[in-house]
Every structure is written in C-alpha cells, then in structure tokens.
Specification:
About 35% of the residues lie in helices and about 15% in strands. The strands form two sheets. Strands 1-2-3-4 form a four-stranded mixed β-sheet. A two-stranded antiparallel ribbon has the order 5-6.
Length: about 160
C-alpha cells in the first residue's frame, strides 16, 4: 500500500496510509539500530510531522509529532529507511514507541547499559520492539512486548 505524503503551507509534513498502524509490518532489529544511530545525529530543527491512518469503517487515526526531537527523529528515519512505504513508517513508529517506552516504563530501563559509545539498548529489547505488532495508535502494547522478552532482565536480574 503506498504512502501519500503532502507538505502544508507552514512546511508540516503529513504521511497518509490507507491502513491502520496495527497492520504495519515487523521490521528487522538492524532497521531500528540504524534509525537510532541516525537519530543521534539528528537535526536541530525539523518540520512538524504527522501520520494519518485511514481504515474504514473506523475513524482515521492521526499522530502529530509536534515535539522537535520526535520530528527530527522522523527525519532521521526518512534518511535511513524512508517514509514512502509502510515498512519505513513502521520503522519510524517503532523508534518513537521505543523511545517513549524507555522514558515512561521503569521496567524497560533494565534493558539499557552504558557502553563505550553511550547508552546501549539490549539486543533482545530491540528484537522485541522490531517484531511486536503496533497498536492502532502506532505504539506498543507493553504486555505483548514483554511477552517477547526472556524472563530475566538484560543484566541477569530477575523480573
């Protein structure tokens, strides 16, 4: 299914798909790693980005990335995976969902480690984030994500 992209008068970018976010494909963990690497080199400014998912008879679902960091990360994904296909949109939404998860869910921080290049995300969490189906709102169902993780945390502690 093609992605229709339009640019508004103020430079805002809207990516529109004729399917729900929950039907976007899984991606490879490497896709997420590349998106994260590109996001580290993010822009200082980026236009507001939005996504609209149209799947009648349900009402359209709209996501607006008004946060400057989120919009810049979307630009980074556009440079690596592209945002002209459902695959690229899936990489972008998974990156944003992973960042939100790490910021909001205390349990997820156990899957981070300080490495030589900064904070590293455990490969098992990246794999789960790449494979778990997205919700209709374009995020992760934490229960489904956690079901894809082993029962011990990244550094050997029990969950």
């Amino acid at each position: 299914m093609p992605v229709k992209t339009t640019i508004g008068l103020a430079g805002e970018v809207l990516h529109q798909l004729g399917q729900p976010a929950s039907s976007l494909p899984a991606v490879s963990p490497r896709d997420l790693e590349q998106a994260l690497e590109a996001a580290h080199d993010r822009l200082r400014t980026a236009p507001v980005r939005g996504f609209r998912f149209i799947a009648p008879p349900a009402p359209p679902v709209e996501l607006v990335l008004a946060d400057p960091d989120a919009a810049a990360w979307a630009v980074a994904v556009e440079r690596t995976a592209g945002l002209a296909t459902p695959q690229g949109i899936s990489v972008c939404l998974r990156l944003l969902a992973l960042v939100a998860l790490l910021a909001d869910a205390a349990w997820a921080r156990a899957w981070l480690a300080l490495g030589g290049g900064g904070v590293e995300i455990h490969p098992q969490l990246l794999r789960a984030a790449a494979l778990v189906p997205l919700t209709d709102a374009g995020g992760f169902d934490e229960t489904a994500l956690r079901a894809l993780l082993p029962h011990t945390q990244a550094r050997g502690a029990n969950t």
